[in-house]
Amino acid sequence: MNDGTKLSARPDVRAFYDAGPFNLRDSPERHAASLRAGNSLADYPPLVAALASQPRILDVGCGTGWLVNGASLHYGCPAHGIDVSTVAIARASSVASLLGVASSFEVADLFAYRPQERFGLVTSMGVLHHTDDCQAALAYLGESFVADNGAMFIGLYHAWGRRPFLAHFETLRRQRASEEAMFAAFRRLWRGAGRSDHDEVLLQSWFQDQVLHPHETSHTLCEFLPLLDSLGFEVVSTSVNRFGPLPEREALPAMEKQLGQASQRALAEGRYYPGFFAFMARRRYSPNPLTSRRTEFPTILPVLREFAGE
C-alpha cells in the first residue's frame, strides 16, 4: 500500500495558494451569496447522481470550499475538506458559517492525511496535477481514503485540451508581454466564454491559477486506466465524452485528441477553454495489497502505446 510518506505538498504550491487562493471572491458574504444563487455542481451529472444518496464526502484540495459547501447546501451531504492553504481553509470555514451548513474543514497535506474512517465519495478537482507525482497522488487517494463501496470523482488538466491555452500564454511571454497585458488577454477570453461575473478578485484568482501557477502537469484518461484497474476501480463516466455512455477503450485515444481540437477552436474564437477533464471511478473490489500497481494489462497496453505513438 502506498502510505504517501515519501511525498508531500510542494512548498512553492503551498506558498502560491496562501498568497492568493483559487476561486476567491472579494468577501465571504459574496462567496456565500454565489453558492446560494447557483449550483455549479450541476455541471457534473455523475457527481450529482452520487450526491443523491448523501454519501460522506472528502474533498482533497478543497480550496475556498465551493464543492464541500455546495454539496452540504444543495444536497445535505456530510462533507469535509482538506487543503494545504491556511488562507483558503479560513475562507471556506467562514462561508460555511454564513451558509449555516455542517461542512467541516482542516489544513492538511493530502499525503500526510490519515482519516479515522474512509469516505463514500472522495473528490479532488484540479489539485493532483499540482503535485510532484499525479499518479502516486491518485493511488494514495484510492488506497487510503475511499470506502470499499465508494467512488472517486477526479478533475485534472488534459494533455491535449490544455496545450493550446498554455502555448498561447507562452507566446505572450516570449513577446515580453507584461503581467498586466497577460491579464487583459485572459480577461478577453473569460468574457468571450460568456462569463458574466464581474468580481475582479475572482477574475484575478482565476488568472493567477491558470497563467501564473508555479507547477502543473497535464494528463489523459488513458494513462490512468492501468492504475485504476490495479486499484480495483472502474471508470463509470467522464467529461471526455460529455458524460455520455462510456466508449470502448480502443476508441478513447482518438476521442481524447479531439479535446485539443476543441481547445484550438475556442482560442481562435476568443473563448476561454481551460483544457480540463473529469472522471468518476467506482471501486469494484478491494485490491490485494501484495499486487503491484504497476502490473501490466495486455488488453489496454496496445491502446496506450498506439496513443503514445510507439
User: H/E order of the elements?
Assistant: HHHEHEHEEHEHHHHEHEH
Question: What is the CATH architecture annotation?
Answer: 3-Layer(aba) Sandwich
Sheet with most strands: 7 strands, mixed
**Which topology does CATH recognise?**
Rossmann fold
Task: Give the quaternary arrangement of the chains.
Answer: single chain
- Spatial order of strands in the largest sheet: 3-2-1-4-5-7-6
Strand content: 5-15%
Count of individual domains? 1
Radius of gyration equals 19 Å
Number of strands: 7
Helix proportion range: 40-55%
The tally of helices reads: 12
Silhouette? globular
Q: What is the CATH superfamily label?
A: Vaccinia Virus protein VP39
* Structural class estimated from helices and strands: alpha/beta
Uncertain stretches of 5 or more adjacent residues: 289-310
CATH level 1 name = Alpha Beta
Taking all residues together, what is the mean pLDDT?
Answer: 91
Distance between the termini: 31 Å
Write a concise keyword list for the protein shown above.
single chain, 310 residues, alpha/beta, Rossmann fold, 7-stranded mixed beta sheet, 12 helices, 45% helix, 15% strand
Task: Outline the structure in words.
- This protein is of the alpha/beta class.
- It has 12 helices and 7 strands.
- It has helices at residues 11-19, 28-37, 45-51, 66-75, 86-99, 134-144, 159-174, 179-192, 200-211, 221-231, 252-268, 301-308; strands at residues 57-60, 79-83, 104-107, 119-125, 146-157, 233-238, 276-283.
- The protein has a 7-stranded mixed β-sheet with strand order 3-2-1-4-5-7-6, with helices on both faces.
- α6 links the parallel β4 (119-125) and β5.
- The model is unreliable at 289-310 (pLDDT under 50).
